Amino acid sequence: MLNYKQLHYFWQVAKAGGVARAAERLHLTPQTLSGQIALLEENLGEALFRRVGRRLELTEAGQLALAYADDIFRTGGELEEVLRGGRGGRPLQFRVGIADVLPKSVAYRLLAPAMALPDPIRLVGKEDKLERLLGELAMHRLDLVLADSPMPEQAEVKGYSHKLGECGVAFLAAPALAARLVGGFPACLAEAPLLVPGEGTALRGQLMRWLAAQQLHPRVVGEFDDAALMNAFGQGGSGVFPAPALVADEIRRQYGVELLGRTDALAERFYAITVARRVSHPAVLAILENASRDRFGSAN
């Protein structure tokens, strides 16, 4: 059985960045602290620290243990506060990874059901590449990952993809550029300067195949992994740019651009990825239940 006193000592050393500093905080000798951590490592059958020069670094097992220890002692603190008469305890922490290719306005919409829960939620958002976020999810440092594609089949971590919704794709441009384009949509895209999502996005391949099928040959003048950066270049008149139809009106108002047209032949899809098929976190449940009731919308 896990010795939680030893786990607490490990947690304090990891947080303090060294045995001597943690020992001072805990009013223990460094020898006592080192001995307790050694017993914990023996019990777990894994080394939690490795020495690099004069410093201690967490091993991979140590990083995983730290993530669990954070949850354990945070929950313990909440329990103590509730039993001592706290007003409903601290806000429940909701740790979300957001793939950097996902438009920020879409991420906000997807997370809105969690923020509307009657019990307070403390949202901790982290934006990064999907591969790195999945690693954080596997180590239980995240409760959920939002992405524009399901979990890759070749991913080395185990997880489950829950489709939240989809919508068509809109094309927008700065007013001055829109005025120079000839013809209706989509013919106006022919030979137009075009900003496209980066290679790492789910939309990129779809978009290029659709343009070829329409026999349209715009000039690709920029490609972006970050949708907000692409929108900013579009606002400046650098080129026509695509966006999820779901948030096209918001982008039009925010950036002062014009809607050229939209198509359902292209689809932006949005997913929630979890480590378990059956989830228990109330914020995750709220997001999934909202999608199952089709309140996410399919503005096309």
UniProtKB/TrEMBL annotation:
Q: Which GO terms describe its biological process?
A: regulation of DNA-templated transcription initiation
Q: What's a Pfam family this protein contains?
A: LysR_substrate
Which top-rank group of organisms is this from? Bacteria
Q: Where is the HTH lysR-type domain?
A: 2-59
Provide the family line.
Answer: Belongs to the LysR transcriptional regulatory family.
The UniProt keyword set, sorted, is: Activator, DNA-binding, Transcription, Transcription regulation
Instruction: State the Gene Ontology terms under molecular function.
Output: DNA binding; DNA-binding transcription factor activity
Q: Give the encoding gene's name.
A: nhaR
Q: Which InterPro entries match?
A: LysR_HTH_N, LysR_subst-bd, WH-like_DNA-bd_sf, WH_DNA-bd_sf
Protein known as: Transcriptional activator NhaR
